[in-house]
Amino acid sequence: MRFSESSRTESELSQIGKISDFCGFASYLAFCVIMAVMSDAVSYLPGITLGPGVWVDKAHLNFGFSRSSGTGGKNVNKVNTKTELRVRPEDLHGLSGRAMQRLLGLAGRRVDALGHLLLVSGNQRTQEANRRACVEKLRELIAEALVEPKIRRKTKPSRASKTRRVESKRINSQRKTQRRVVAEA
Q1: For 137-173, how does the pLDDT look when each residue is reduced to its tens digit (9 = 90+)?
Q2: Do 54 and 142 have their domain in common?
């Protein structure tokens, strides 16, 4: 389409081009400033949400891949689809101290010697699916750790419940004595 046929003139189109070039440069400049500010080791922007108020930076999730175990097939001996997710519990933001202790207790043998949580998935056919499965396992573990257990309070049976129990025992005893066969002398 030629400029003369369009609804805009050449001068208007050149102005729009200059503005779009300036906006592109401005957004690039803003991006550079943001990256310079965020280049520190600590990030304050949430990465992956793992639960209500719990998140982790994507950089702290370490994925490793290896060959899956099991019987052979078309891809099983050639493709590295088994996924291992390692994450330090200290990198999980938003967990209270008691929730962190419950998480480590629930993880059990899934905590390695360095204190990292190790979650493994090899059931899916692709790395991406196994990666999602590992993150989902972490979400389930955190959801379980966030639940505060109820504190059991000792209770005493009431006087009425004690008398009901004794009365039912007395009735059962009478019922059983009536079933006995009386021996004739």
Answers
A1: 999 999 999 999 899 999 999 999 999 999 999 999 9
A2: yes
Distance, in Å, from the CA atom of 100 to the CA atom of 93, rounded to the nearest integer, reads 10
Taking the whole predicted model, whether its pTM rises above 0.90 is answered as: no
Contact by Cβ (8 Å): 81, 130: yes
Instruction: Quote the domain boundaries for residue 21.
Output: 1-39
Specify whether the CB–CB gap between 84 and 120 falls below 8 A. yes
User: Are 126 and 63 contained in the same domain?
Assistant: yes
Residues 99 and 54 in one domain: yes
Distances (CA, A) of 38 to 31, 34, 43, 45, 92: 10, 6, 6, 9, 19
Name the pairing type of β-strands 62-66 and 117-121: unpaired
- Assigned domain for 24 exists: yes
| Closest C-alpha to 139, from 50, 56, 53 | 50
**CATH number for the domain that contains residue 85:** 3.30.160.20
Do 33 and 69 contact (CB within 8 A), yes or no? no
Structural domains in the chain (count): 2
What distance in Å separates the CA atoms of residue 138 and residue 132, rounded to the nearest whole number?
Answer: 10
Residue 6's pLDDT is what?
45
